[in-house]
Design a protein that fits this description.
Helices cover 41% and strands 16% of the residues. It has 184 residues and is an alpha/beta fold. A hairpin with a 3-residue loop joins strand 3 and strand 4 (137-144).
């Protein structure tokens, strides 16, 4: 949710009244509720109009400044004449797999590459800790010196990357065999 809001706000603070427009926010009350909680919005500062899913279309209709009148069949013909405007405007890449056989070959080749797994219990040797601190989640892996995956951790960072790392490290260190030195 925090990442979605950050993207929508483009780095600017969200203050004052917030209008909830669009289909998902109209139909999914729990999604709206999550926005209320995350943005700390009380009832006075949230606007949820009826037919919010139609606001953009209504605005487009009202913003049109013309005395020209059109019938529905004329509108349908005008829309049909647009063709695949979006497809023509966007340069498309070739598909990753041209055929089902190409995909099967890729899958077969990649299924053969498997990370070796080991058991942490009884492991002796150096242990390496890898941490991936993403925007919403954190992942950690303990890897033995021969490349075997000994332990993993995955969880939401709740916007607190350092705090989550502090949670992971005790879990990792209590999981280590006592004699195993670690390297980061």
């Amino acid at each position: 949710m925090t990442q979605t809001i950050s993207g929508l706000a483009c780095g600017r603070p969200i203050r004052g009244n917030v209008a909830f427009l669009g289909g998902p926010l109209q139909y999914l009350s729990e999604l709206r509720h999550r926005f209320y909680l995350t943005l700390n919005l009380d009832e006075e500062h949230r606007i949820v109009p009826q037919n919010a899913h139609l606001f953009v279309a209504s605005g487009a209709a009202m913003a049109h400044e013309s005395n020209k009148l059109s019938t529905f069949p004329q509108l349908i013909e005008a829309i049909d004449s647009l063709g695949d405007t979006q497809g023509a405007e966007v340069e498309r890449l070739d598909p990753l797999f041209a055929t089902d056989e190409d995909f099967a070959e890729f899958k077969n080749r990649h299924d053969q590459e498997v990370v070796p797994k080991g058991k942490l219990d009884g492991y002796t040797g150096r242990v390496f800790i890898g941490i991936d601190a993403g925007s919403t989640t954190m992942k950690a892996a303990l890897v033995g010196e021969d490349g075997q995956l000994l332990h993993t951790w995955y969880g939401n960072n709740n916007g607190d990357i350092l705090g989550t790392a502090k949670v992971i490290m005790p879990i990792s260190t209590t999981t280590f065999p006592r004699a195993a030195p670690s390297a980061t």
